[in-house]
Write a structure and sequence with these properties.
The chain is an alpha+beta fold and 282 residues long. It is built from 12 helices and 7 strands. The protein is 49% helix and 15% strand.
């Protein structure tokens, strides 16, 4: 990590939603740590940047994931509980969360923007549609959310004033309550997290956090990020049936190396693509 990137990201909260943030606490390893692990006997300065880039692209292209586990990120994240419950399903990270049993919960709740208060999607059973509620209804709902959150927090404070145990007093707080945690994860599993949470079908609120984390990873591991973006985020796989269809549609297309290079494929990538095509046409 360069001094410029440290100055921009390390220890600096990046705002998310109305009251949340993502803060990079620490990072172990950079792109050179990935190629070092892949080569094992790699010595600093013995390979060029272009060779490092080629190797990283090869590793991602062929799903050699373990070298990416040599890079680890630690984040401090503040987020609503309902997003934390989605997030925690990624069980490949180390997590330590703020405890409402030991500490008093803060008077901080998430209120969605008016334009994010939308109708239920008829296609995606677990998400909102692109259709917004009318402005009057959306404003009423936002106001009701705010009133009920305030009321529940006042009840919470009353329970504490009566010397009710914190672990009991907290149980009626809404899922919109903000929590915080430290979240440590290696780059391989972070890429998997981002693949799912950057997707347009992921919930809007968690996509906001994924976008900010992606910004940090892109700055700290630029070679790995570019390869990941090319082969994973912007790549797709096909079923056998889909390949049969493509075989019929593309049978008259000229897949010569000179043609493939015009699409941005390197020499090795072009040769590998030709092998894939030969397998498809068998």
């Amino acid at each position: 990590m360069t001094d410029e990137i440290k100055e921009k990201y390390l220890g600096k909260p990046i705002n998310c939603l109305d009251k949340g943030f993502v803060r990079l606490v620490d990072i172990m390893g950079d792109d050179s740590a990935i190629v070092q692990a892949a080569r094992v006997s790699y010595g600093a300065g013995t390979k060029s940047v272009n060779e490092d880039e080629g190797l990283i692209r090869y590793l991602i292209r062929h799903r050699h994931t373990s070298p990416f586990e040599m890079v680890e990120y630690k984040f401090h994240i503040k987020l609503p509980i309902f997003i934390a419950r989605q997030w925690i399903r990624h069980r490949t990270a180390n997590v330590n969360e703020y405890s409402g049993r030991y500490s008093e919960m803060k008077d901080e709740f998430y209120i969605p923007d008016i334009d994010q208060i939308r109708t239920q999607s008829s296609l995606n059973k677990q998400g909102r549609s692109e259709e917004r509620l009318n402005s009057e209804s959306a404003a009423t709902i936002a106001s009701m959310l705010n009133v009920s959150q305030r009321h529940l927090y006042e009840e919470y404070l009353y329970y504490l004033e009566q010397n009710t145990a914190r672990e009991i007093a907290r149980i009626n707080l809404p899922l919109s309550t903000y929590t915080e945690w430290y979240w440590k994860i290696d780059l391989h599993n972070l890429f998997h997290f981002l693949e799912l949470r950057l997707d347009s079908h992921a919930q809007y609120e968690i996509r906001i956090y994924a976008d900010k984390i992606a910004e940090i990873v892109k700055a700290c591991n630029p070679l790995a990020w570019q390869a990941y973006e090319d082969y994973v985020l912007n790549g797709i796989t096909f079923s056998r049936q889909e390949l049969n269809l493509l075989k019929d549609v593309t049978k008259d297309f000229a897949f010569e190396p000179e043609v493939l290079k015009t699409y941005g494929l390197s020499g090795l990538e072009a040769r590998e693509f030709k092998i894939k095509l030969e397998k498809m046409y068998e």
